[in-house]
Design goal:
By secondary structure, the protein is an alpha/beta fold. About 35% of the residues lie in helices and about 25% in strands. The protein has 14 helices and 21 strands. An eight-stranded mixed beta sheet has the order 12-11-8-13-16-17-19-20, with helices on both faces. The model has no long low-confidence stretch (mean pLDDT about 95). Bound molecules: ligand PMT.
Length: about 400
């Protein structure tokens, strides 16, 4: 059976650089990529859809209300087809729409529905590029995981000189190919991810827990699966949907997590522990609902739970890469570094959970990746993007270990 070619959906918006999208399309085809084009109506003033239709060999999607010619034009089908969604040139207008969640034409609705990595190659007048709104919108999109090839500086079609020129088409194509390849760079790698909180029972109706939503661990599991890894996700009780292509194994208590993780850890290549297991549990769980005691204080006696990461770390095999998180409120880096060593981890993700936009139950995070050799402070990013960066680093650690052997 013939192997299916990877697919790039190329969005073309209305700027003078639109003609360069033809060259991008040709270069992608030379790299054995199937390209589908969607254009804004303004882009059609610069290059006729027929040009892209002829070059790509596929109908060009412009208007959501047009009838399809030979295939299912509707935006969802096109969005699903994309392995990478490239918008080149990307005007200030499409950047603004994407940042604000506006979907009012074929291109903006399609990119909104797409699950594939999105790469923007902006091109515009220098004043527009430097405008605070445009830069803010780009920051918003980057925090959501959108990739950007910044424009080059030079002489612009409008007569001005400065930043805003569409980056060299070869560079744009190279970044697109990198994203296409990256997608499957974990093929054959076995990954165990832990996520979410634990619940330690007090009595049949009450428990001790924490604010973990599972979002961080789920994002890691989802990204690893998309990149081709074989993923098992050990999940505490959470209220978010399971990522597709991932085996989910539930746990409730830290002891259950210990059992499930120990059963599987030795057969994994990479272990990423984003769960927030309780350090303590109630020594004696009441068999019936505990009643109030006429105003007298109530004491719960807590005993220490096993440290799952430390136990697994002590049995780690030479080629395995173990990653932990450190959720801290003070002396973040120092505490994280101690955990890196004590739990025999290869990397720890230091998470200052006091910072707005970081830690529990939000869609973003601010972390520092710490290995034995280096520290990298990441800015405020979506948990999806943080997940990608953690996986990049874990893969690099793994290939280093494999080469050393
Ligand atoms: O789930 P979200 O709402 O998205 O929030 C994400 C998060 C804040 C939970 C996540 O980013 C995070 O920081 N997870 C680690 C939480 C935690 O328990 O940190 P810790 O510093 O107490 O533990 C250090 C490491 O040891 C962690 O990898 C933890 O999984 C592990 N651990 C902790 C206690 C224990 N008894 N056994 C363990 O294995």
């Amino acid at each position: 059976m013939e192997k299916k070619k990877p697919c790039v959906v190329l969005g073309v918006t209305g700027g003078i650089a639109a003609y360069k999208a033809c060259e991008i399309l040709r270069l992608l085809q030379k790299r054995d990529v199937d390209v589908y084009v969607t254009m804004t109506k303004n882009a059609c003033h610069f290059v006729a859809p027929l040009t892209f239709e002829t070059l790509s060999g596929h109908p060009v999607a412009v208007d959501t209300f047009e009838r399809p010619q030979t295939w299912e034009v509707e935006h969802i089908a096109l969005a699903k087809r994309a392995d990478v969604f490239l918008i080149a040139p990307a005007t200030a207008n499409i950047i603004g729409k994407m940042a604000s969640g506006i979907a009012d034409d074929m291109l903006s609705t399609t990119v909104m529905a797409a699950k594939a990595p999105v790469l923007l190659a902006p091109a515009m007048n220098t004043g527009m590029w430097e405008n605070a709104a445009v830069q803010h919108n780009l920051d918003v999109l980057k925090a959501r995981g959108v990739h950007v090839v910044a424009p080059a500086s030079g002489h612009l079609a409008c007569g001005d000189s400065g930043a805003g020129k569409l980056e060299n088409v070869e560079i744009i194509v190279e970044r697109t190919i990198e994203l296409l390849n990256k997608k499957r760079d974990m093929e054959g790698v076995r990954v165990l991810v832990t996520a979410g909180p634990t619940r330690e029972a007090i009595d049949p109706v009450r428990y001790i827990s924490n604010r973990s939503s599972g979002k961080m661990g789920y994002a890691i599991a989802e990204s690893a699966a998309k990149r081709g890894a074989e993923v098992v996700l050990l999940s505490g009780p959470v209220a978010i949907p399971a990522p597709s292509g991932v085996e989910v194994v539930p746990f409730t208590t830290t002891q259950e997590l210990m059992e499930q993780a120990s059963m599987r850890a030795l057969t994994q290549d990479i272990l990423i522990q984003a769960a927030a297991p309780a350090d303590y549990r109630v020594e004696t769980v009441a068999s019936q609902k505990i009643k109030k005691q006429d105003g007298a204080p109530m004491t719960l006696r807590l005993i220490e739970n096993p440290d799952v990461a430390a136990a697994l770390g002590s049995a780690k095999k030479p080629n395995q890469v173990f990653v932990g998180f450190a959720a801290e409120t003070n002396d973040v880096i120092a505490h994280a570094e101690k955990k890196l060593e004590r739990k025999n981890l290869d990397m720890i993700v230091a998470n200052n959970v006091m910072r707005p936009g970081a830690g529990f139950d939000v869609d973003t995070n601010i972390v520092t990746l710490i290995t034995g050799e280096h520290k990298e402070d990441l800015p405020l990013l979506s948990k999806k993007e943080v997940a990608e960066r953690i996986l990049d680093c874990a893969l690099a650690l793994r290939s280093k270990k494999m080469h050393l052997r």
